[in-house]
Design a protein that fits this description.
By secondary structure, this protein is an all-alpha fold. The chain has 3 helices and no strands.
Length: 105
C-alpha cells in the first residue's frame, strides 16, 4: 500500500475500534445543538480522526432523521487540492455535488 495515497474508506482498512465515547458525544451534541458551528479536528496520521468523525456523523444522522435534515462525512481533500489557488464557494460546490444527490427526498 502506498502511504501517500488515502485508502478507500469502504475498503475495510479503517479501525472500527471504539474511540472515547465521551468525545463522540461531545462533538455530536455540539453539532446537534449548533449545526452552523465549525469544528476543527486535528491529529497525526492514524490517530483516529476519520473514525471519530464517521461515528459523529452516524450519531448526528440518527438524531436528525425525523426532522428531515441530513448529515454526511465528506473528505474535502479527496476533491480539492488545498495548495490550489483559493476559489470562492469551493466547499459549498463540493458539498452540493457529493451530498445532495444522496440526501433523502
Amino acid at each position: 500500500m502506498d502511504p501517500l495515497v488515502q485508502p478507500d474508506p469502504e475498503a475495510g482498512l479503517y479501525v472500527e475500534s471504539d474511540p472515547r465515547e465521551e468525545i463522540v458525544d461531545e462533538i455530536a451534541r455540539t453539532v446537534e445543538l449548533k449545526p452552523d458551528r465549525r469544528l476543527l479536528v486535528v491529529g497525526c496520521t492514524g490517530s483516529g480522526k476519520t473514525t471519530l468523525m464517521r461515528r459523529c456523523v452516524q450519531r448526528v444522522r440518527e438524531a436528525v432523521k425525523e426532522t428531515g435534515d441530513y448529515g454526511a462525512y465528506l473528505d474535502v481533500s479527496r476533491f480539492h487540492r488545498f495548495d490550489a489557488e483559493p476559489l470562492e464557494g469551493v466547499l459549498i460546490a463540493i458539498a452540493g455535488k457529493h451530498v445532495a444527490p444522496s440526501a433523502p427526498t
